[in-house]
Specification:
coiled coil; rod-shaped; about 325 residues; mainly alpha; CCDC144C-like coiled-coil domain-containing protein; CC144C-like_CC_dom; C144A/B/C
Length: about 325
């Protein structure tokens, strides 16, 4: 029984070590979730920056409208001679960005449906919003790069990160060139290649995300199994504790009985010693009686011999 209890306690220690490992894995998950929250905060900051830029553009447009409304054309050129050039450059940039966005949408999504056509029409109506969406897309892709840094895969994480950063830099350079009236087909093809690279990387990240989900499911399944095993072990532990209490009560009863038996044995030993002393005394008395009997027999024999001699003398 003691061996069974010892083996059960060893099994409980093993389960305790497994639970400690599980707790460490949950801590790692919590750290990853906190890092994801930080990334979400970065996205919110990026969105706020976009809104600030849009506010600045709206303020500049309001100023331009007020100058138009207040001053005539001649005075307006005198007051802000560089304003017309800036407006032209902004319009050119917007037109070039609209063309690039339309061509990219046509190349990336050849079988378009009604939803894609509606999006293209919305981009034509609201070019600034489409540009902001693209900027948000670039920021989200850069955030996926940060996620790669946080949760790297086992095979080729460094290569993916380097390729993603190089593609991102090339995209920024080409977008800046395109914003400066670059309407080359070569640059458009480069941008298309960059977006295809982004799509490949996104597919790769989706595959890795599915692998991580499978790993998480396996870990959760193992955690449920460990919880079941832990509950079973708790039940076994409660049963063993109950048995231990019973065994301890039995041991105390046996100890009490053993003490009583020892006391009885001590009493019997004392009685045995007394009986031995009595027997020894009786043996001594018996020996004395035997000796006296022998002496008496000798005396009787001697007396008989004397009587015989006397009778013989009398006959003579």
């Amino acid at each position: 029984q003691v061996g069974i209890l010892h083996s059960a306690f060893l099994a409980l220690e093993k389960e305790k070590n497994q639970l400690q490992k599980e707790i460490e894995e949950e801590k790692i998950k919590k750290e990853l979730e906190s890092e994801g929250k930080k990334i979400a905060n970065v996205e919110m900051l990026a969105v706020n920056n976009d809104e600030k830029i849009e506010q600045k553009h709206s303020i500049s447009e309001i100023q331009h409208i007020t100058i138009k409304s207040v001053f005539p054309a001649d005075q307006k050129e005198i007051i802000c001679p560089g304003l017309k050039g800036t407006r032209k450059s902004e319009n050119k940039r917007r037109n070039s960005k609209q063309k690039v966005s339309q061509q990219l949408c046509n190349n990336l999504h050849e079988p378009q449906d009604e939803s894609s056509l509606s999006e293209a029409s919305l981009e034509e109506r609201y070019p600034a919003k489409s540009v902001n969406r693209k900027n948000k897309l670039y920021r989200t892709l850069s955030i996926t790069n940060d996620l790669d840094d946080l949760t790297p895969s086992s095979d080729s994480t460094t290569e993916d990160i380097e390729s993603l950063s190089s593609i991102y830099k090339e995209a920024i350079v080409l977008i800046e060139e395109l914003s400066l009236d670059c309407k080359d087909s070569v640059n458009l093809l480069k941008v298309q290649n960059i977006f295809h690279g982004y799509e490949r990387l996104i597919e790769h990240e989706k595959g890795r995300y599915t692998q991580l989900l499978e790993k998480v499911k396996k870990i959760e399944k193992e955690r449920h199994e460990w919880q079941k095993n832990l509950e079973d072990l708790k039940d076994m532990k409660s049963i063993l504790d109950h048995q231990k209490v019973q065994y301890e009560s039995e041991i105390t009863n046996l100890k009490f009985c053993l003490k009583q038996e020892e006391e009885k044995r001590m009493g019997s030993d004392i009685l045995h010693e007394k009986n031995q002393e009595q027997l020894r005394k009786k043996d001594e008395q018996y020996c004395m009686q035997v000796e006296e009997k022998q002496q008496l027999e000798l005396m009787l024999r001697s007396k008989e011999m004397e009587l015989k001699t006397l009778t013989n003398h009398l006959k003579q």
